[in-house]
TrEMBL record:
It catalyses: GTP + H2O = GDP + phosphate + H(+). Keywords: Chaperone, GTP-binding, Hydrolase, Nucleotide-binding, Zinc. It comes from Kwoniella mangroviensis CBS 10435. GO terms for molecular function: GTP binding; hydrolase activity. Residues 247-257 have a biased composition (Polar residues). Belongs to the SIMIBI class G3E GTPase family. ZNG1 subfamily. Residues 318-374 form the CobW C-terminal domain. Residues 258-271 have a biased composition (Basic and acidic residues). InterPro entries: CobW-likC_sf, CobW-like_C, CobW/HypB/UreG_nucleotide-bd, P-loop_NTPase, Zinc-reg_GTPase_activator. This is Cytoplasmic protein. GO terms for cellular component: cytoplasm. SUPFAM superfamilies: Hypothetical protein YjiA, C-terminal domain, P-loop containing nucleoside triphosphate hydrolases.
Amino acid sequence: MEDEDPPQLLDVPSSDDEEAGSSRDLYDRPKIPLTLLTGYLGAGKSTLLDYILKEEHGYKIAVCMNDFGDTTDIEAKSLTLSDPNSQSTTTEFLSLPNGCLCCSFKDMGIAAIEEMVANAPGGIDWVMVELTGVADPGPIVRSFWANEEMGDLILDGVVCVVDSRNVLKQLAEQREGDEINECQKQVACADVILLNKLDLVTPEQMKEVESTIRTINPTLRVHHTTQSKAPLSDLFNLRAFSDPTALTSTKSTTNHVQNHDHDHSSDDCSHPSHAQTHTNGISTILIPLPTLNQKQYFRLNEFLESILWDNRYPISKKPSPEILRSKGYIRLDDGREYVLQGVADLFELKELPGSEQKEGQGKVVFIGKNVGEEVKVALKEFVGI
């Protein structure tokens, strides 16, 4: 394989931790934040969007839906926007009484969303884009995270709505060739999970669902909801691709599920080992890192290039697991700190400004297919820790 430079990502501007009263201060950056909304069919995405479009929350949110069909009962004014400096097609959307906008995401690219935001009367505080229930969010996350067309937009995070009553069956669905199914990918790529339909499951069932979800992705922020109702503070201002807070608070060292011999004949299968039945080999390993010197930091970068680009371990040359998400918090002995974010083969190590530095031990998380102790051993050997 020819040598090449790592994929280049947009530099994410830092922000001040000041509080103010305007709606834009919900996310104190000059760019307009964008949230991707994913979730399996019937999980409750449309119900959540309907709630956002009707609620008097005081924010001007542009909601890009898959279909206008779910908004037919909302009193709205149909508007058409066009860029006078462009020959591109116009953008049609609904203007809602609470100040929000609603448009169809079908065949709508990043440039079109950027155009809509730039020309929306009164401005926009936030953009939420709904993905289809069977979409693999990985490639879409990559395109919104690393696309220069984002302009005045910045990806804030990925919110996934889960049907708590049916998610275990959805996670266990088999695909040809033992491929990772859509529900597994959605959970693995998410930054926030709404465990919806709380009223349809028992506390014991909810415990099992949350245990399984955290087995796949232990860095998630989890919220329980009924009819998809959640405060906007649970969905927005995640800074998922620049802030390591969620990772530094993750305490478990591994969520990789090994084979177990004990019996699961009981209906109560909330033991974490039972999650293997539902996740089809999707697992996570969290590797603690000591404070690194400069050489070790460079070696860590080389290790990431090898397993994410070349799909092999750098020393043994053996194939490495399929990685869906990578996250990390790295501390150097000269006082610098870095945050790692990766989606599939695209990753970024970004230095944290002094004002955003965190307390806590360094660590790296890999989420993927059959991710286990072999990754940890290979990393420690190559980096020299």
